[in-house]
Write a structure and sequence with these properties.
Strand content: 25-35%
Helix content: 25-40%
Shape: globular
Radius of gyration: 13 Å
Mean pLDDT: 91
Largest sheet: 5 strands, mixed
Distance between the termini: 24 Å
Number of helices: 5
Structural class: alpha+beta
Number of strands: 5
Length: about 120
């Protein structure tokens, strides 16, 4: 099982990847939205913002997110690390229910380029 430190590191690596992307991915990452990533098996939630093409983690809280972020993710720590490492395809994980992504309709349309 991935640790909290490994999950945080994975989010930092994902942020670096988004910041270095171009084209449609760069455009999708340019949203300015609140973000939460609930790590189900660890019982923690990373909260922050997706802004300027980067993910900025601002806090880590116990349990599910306390406030409803504009973009909400939920998954296991192992799945987060595997996706960031390129070992798990996000679209397949999402369609099979391993990863949950919730956002407004317009944001989902923009975020689909990240899939």
């Amino acid at each position: 099982m991935a640790t909290m430190a490994e999950c945080r590191s994975a989010l930092d690596r994902l942020s670096d990847s988004l910041a270095g992307a171009d084209g449609d991915v760069r455009s999708a990452a340019a949203l300015d939205r609140s973000l939460s990533c609930h790590i189900k098996d660890l019982g923690i939630t990373f909260t922050g913002r997706l802004a300027d093409g980067r993910i900025r983690v601002l806090d880590t809280v116990e349990g599910p997110p306390r406030e409803k972020a504009e973009i909400r993710l939920a998954m296991t720590g192992d799945d987060l690390v595997a996706m960031v490492d390129g070992e798990l395809n996000f679209a397949r994980a999402w369609s099979s229910g391993r990863v949950r992504l919730e956002a407004g309709f317009r944001d989902l349309l923009k975020l689909k380029s990240l899939l």
